[in-house]
Design goal:
The protein is mostly helical. The chain has 7 helices and no strands.
């Protein structure tokens, strides 16, 4: 293996470690939200600094690689994609932390279980976790055949999001005393919807690296 290839492998491994951490943060966000678990929520908040540190290191290491080796073609696409993926993972980590902080606020850390079930929050979390874990497999295998299925799950998240907003609007109308907590729950659901968007962005970056195709904005293949 050439030295430059070893460097590239190290970069991929750094992103993989960050990815696993962020996936764990999202899984714990689900646990803390559905169970009202304040301790797990605090653990998420405390680990957010590790996510930030990963993003800064990966960004610096990728910039150094470009400066030292002037990569072209597939190697350049890989490094550029890793930079963008790490930035996106950091944002997903931020949203997971936002969900955790919602639980830490004692006034809203418990909600009617029947309402949570009606909002299909567990299904939304599970879909996002699936998107993030499947995307990881796509990068590790460098096989983009399931990328379309992953992107389609973002549409499922959007549908759940819009349904949940309508349900919460009606709930707050009938329960004025719960408007404050209802609005904060809307913010949580919005965070989950944004995570879906970011998972889609990650898939697009992997397709850019592996297949030299730009999916965003109806883009075409790159040379």
């Amino acid at each position: 293996m050439k030295y430059t290839e070893e460097e590239l492998q190290t970069l991929k491994e750094e992103v993989s470690e960050m990815w696993k951490l962020v996936l764990s943060q999202l899984e714990k966000a689900k646990q803390s939200f559905l169970n009202g678990d304040v301790e797990v929520a605090r653990e998420i908040v405390s680990r957010e600094k590790r996510v930030d540190a990963f993003e800064l290191k990966i960004d610096s290491d990728c910039e150094n690689y470009i400066a030292l080796y002037s990569p072209v073609a597939v190697d350049l696409r890989l490094v550029l994609s890793l930079i963008k993926i790490s930035i996106t993972l950091e944002r997903i980590g931020d949203f997971a932390e936002g969900v955790a902080r919602h639980i830490i606020e004692e006034e809203c850390n418990t909600m009617d279980p029947a309402l949570i079930e009606e909002l299909q929050m567990e299904k939304m979390f599970d879909t996002l976790i699936s998107m993030l874990s499947d995307s990881f497999v796509v990068l590790e295998s460098e096989n983009t055949r399931i990328s379309g299925k992953i992107l389609a799950k973002d549409d499922e998240v959007d549908t759940l999001y819009h349904q949940a907003i309508n349900i919460l609007a009606e709930y707050m109308k009938q329960n004025p005393a719960q408007i404050r907590c209802g609005l904060k729950t809307v913010l949580v659901i919005r965070k989950l919807e944004r995570i879906g968007d970011h998972c889609g962005n990650i898939v697009e970056e992997i397709v850019f690296y592996v297949d030299a195709k730009v999916l965003k904005h109806g883009g075409k293949a790159v040379i």
